[in-house]
Amino acid sequence: SPQTITFELIHPKCKFYMADGTELIVGMPLVTALNKTREQNDVFLRIHRSFAVNVEHIDIYCNDSLIMKNEMRVPIGRLYRDILPDNLTIIDKRDRTSDEAGNEQID
Question: Higher confidence at residue 51 or residue 33?
Answer without folding.
Answer: 51
